[in-house]
Each structure stands twice: as structure tokens, then as C-alpha cells.
Amino acid sequence: MCLGTIAKVVEVHGDGRAVVEHAPVDHGVADGAGRREEVLLLTVADDDIEPGDWVVIHSGFALERISAERAADALAIRATEPPATDPHAADPHAANPDTTPGASASPQHKEMAP
């Protein structure tokens, strides 16, 4: 699964391109500290995009313009740490093999007497 990145438009060129600044995800705040990239505006109306707008970027294309609130929400979600999982946790099916999915299922066919 691929995810788009959140970026703020810095410059808009008249030829369907724009320069955006990717929001730094590690802090959840976009304050101009991200990397810059030139993107294509083929999938959005470039006459609607202005410097200061927030956009979703994927594979070098601006997919859509989003509100500042939506950008802040997305950045906050991306800045949160995923829950840690215990790599040493026991497999619940290992202790009782009868709980393995499909272990208690009846056969799908019956042998017929000759």
C-alpha cells in the first residue's frame, strides 16, 4: 500500500508544475523544515493551486488540495508512534493445536463403502 505525503505549495509555475515543501513527519509540524520537490499538477486544476495551499503528493503528482486543518490532522496522525508489539509473545495457537484455524473442521468429503 502506498501513502501520499502532505506538502505545502511554495511556488506555482504556469506550465502545470509547482514546487512543494514536504512537511516533516517526525515532529507533526510543518514549519518549512521539510524537503522541497517539483511536482506535476495534472490531477488538480493548477489555476486553483496557490502558494500556501496544502496538497497530497504521490509519485510526483499533486493528487488533491486539502485544507490546513486536514493537513494538520494528517500530520498529527503520522507523527504518532505505532503501538509496540511484543516480538516474544507466544502464539496463542501453539499451546493448544486444536485452536488452530481449521483444525476442528470436519472433512469436506466422506469415503464411500465399496
Question: In terms of topology, how is this protein built?
Answer:
Layout: E1 5-12, E2 17-22, E3 36-40, E4 54-58, E5 61-66, H1 68-79
Antiparallel strand pairs: 1-2, 1-4, 2-3, 4-5
Backbone CA Rg: 25 Å
Q: Approximately how much helix is present in the residues?
A: 10-25%
> What is the CATH domain class of the domain at 5-64?
Mainly Beta
Distance from first to last alpha carbon: 53 Å
Question: Any key phrases for this structure?
Answer:
elongated, about 110 residues, about 10% helix, five-stranded antiparallel beta sheet, SH3 type barrels, single chain, alpha+beta
Describe this protein's structure.
The protein is α+β, with helices and mostly antiparallel strands. It has a domain at 5-64: SH3 type barrels. 11% of the residues lie in helices and 26% in strands. It is built from one helix and five strands; from the N terminus they run βββββα. It has one helix at residues 68-79; strands at residues 5-12, 17-22, 36-40, 54-58, 61-66. Strands 3-2-1-4-5 form a five-stranded antiparallel sheet. A hairpin with a 2-residue loop joins β4 (54-58) and β5 (61-66). The longest helix has 12 residues, at 68-79. It starts with a strand and ends in a 35-residue tail after the last helix. Residues 27-32 have low confidence and may be disordered.
In short:
Helices cover 11% and strands 26% of the residues.
